[in-house]
Amino acid sequence: MRVNSRTIALLAAMTAGAAWLFAEPAPRNVSARGPATVEAGVGSHPLDGQIRDETERLRRRLDAAPRLAGARRDPFAFAVPVSAASPSTSKAERPPQNLRSPVQQDPEPQLDLLGVGEDLREGHRVRTAIMGGPNRELWILQEGEMLGLRYRVARIGTEAAELVDVSTGASRRLFLR
C-alpha cells in the first residue's frame, strides 16, 4: 500500500481539526478571589452604570414583594377546594354555592341508527352506518367521519354505532331499531 503526500497532508489536517474541536478553551485570567469586577471608568461601557443601577432596583423590588403563604401552586389541580367559611366571614363575602357552568352544552339531538352496511375492500371489512336525525336528515358515514360539527364516528358494529362528542370526549351509542 502506497501512501502519497496528499493523503498524509489530509490526515494531518483532519487530526489538527479534531484536536482543535475537542480541545478545552484556554483559561482566562481569573484571580483566586472569583470573577473580576470592572471598576467604573476603567475599560467600562457607558451603560454599565445604568445596568448596575437597574439590577439593584429590581433586586430591592423583588425582596419587597410578598411571599406566597401556604401550599405551592399545583398545575394539575383545576380548582382549590372550598373550605368551610370561618365564622367571622359575613354572608356577603361568601362565594355563591350554586354556580352554573359558564359553557352551556347543547342538548343531544335525536339520532337513530337506521342500518349498517358492510363491504369488502382489499380484503378488509368496511362498515357504513346509515343514521337519521331530526327534520328527516339522513347520513351515510364510515368510521372516522364527522356527523355535523359535533360528533365523530368512532366505531361501527353489526348492531350499533359509537359516536364521540368532539368537544367533551363523551361517547354515545346508537343501536339498531
Order of neighbouring strands in the sheet with most strands:
4-5-6-7
- Written as H for each helix and E for each strand, in order along the chain, the element string is HHEEEEEEE
The quaternary state of the protein chains shown equals single chain
Number of helices: 2
Classification by helices and strands: alpha+beta
Strand count:
7
Kindly, what is the distance between the CA atoms of the first and last residues, rounded to a whole number of angstroms? 86 Å
Overall mean pLDDT stands at 79
List low-pLDDT spans.
Answer: none
Which outline best applies? flat
Radius of gyration: 36 Å
State which percent range the strand residues make up: 25-35%
Report the helical percentage: 10-25%
Q: Sheet bearing the most strands, described?
A: 4 strands, antiparallel
Task: Describe, in plain words, how this protein is organized in 3D.
The chain has 177 residues and is an alpha+beta fold. Helices cover 20% and strands 25% of the residues. The protein has two helices and seven strands, in the order ααβββββββ. It has a four-stranded antiparallel sheet, with no helix packed on it. A hairpin with a 3-residue loop joins strand 4 (146-147) and strand 5. The protein is flat, with a radius of gyration of 36 Å. It starts with a helix and ends with a strand.
